[in-house]
Here is the input.
Amino acid sequence: MKVFSCPKCSHPIFFENNICLNCNSKVGFSVYHFDFVLVDDHHHHSIYCTNYARDVCNWVVRNIETDQFCLACSFNGLIPTYEDTVNFEKWREMEMAKHRLIYQLLVLQLPLIPKSKDQINGLSFDFLVADNTSNRMTGHANGLVTTLLDEGDPVHREQMRKQLSSLSNTSRALPTRNRPLLLDATL
Ligand SMILES: [Zn+2]
Ligand SMILES: [Zn+2]
Here is the structure.
C-alpha cells in the first residue's frame, strides 16, 4: 500500500491514519482528490464519513448534508449493531480490509457503483453474524457480497479475497479485464 504524506507538513501518512503524527492535523482520505486532505470540522467540505465516529473509517465526504457515508462505506448493506461489541469489532477489521480493496479497485479505475444507486448492476456488502438457524454462507451473487463474521481472521480474509477475486471476473458491477486483480497484497 502506498504511503501518503500530510497535506500540511509532508510527514508520512499511512492508509488507516486519521491524524498526522508530526503536526497533529486531522487528515482523511478523499476519493475526489485521491489523496489525503486536511479535515475541517467547521466547514461543509472534507469532513469525515459517519463511520469515523465509530472508529471504522478515515475517509472524507464532500458534503455531510448530502453524503452521510464515504464511497467505501456506501457499499455496506447489513452490518452488526454497535451494541454487538464482539461482532462489531470483527466487522471493523473487515471494514478496514474492504477500504483497502476499494482503494485498489479505484486505482485500477474499475467503475464502482453502490447498490443504493443501481440495484441491478451495483455492488453491496452484507456482513452477517452466522447462526445455526439459517443457511448463511460466505459468497456473492448479483453483486451482493456476503461475509460471515464468526470465521477466524486469516480464513475470513482469504475467503473474502477469493470471493472478491471471483466477483471481479463475474459481476456486472466490475467489467472483465485482461489483467488479473492483484488482491493478495491489499488484504
Ligand atoms: Zn502533518
Ligand atoms: Zn466511510
Q: What stands out?
A: Confidence is low (pLDDT under 50) at residues 170-187.
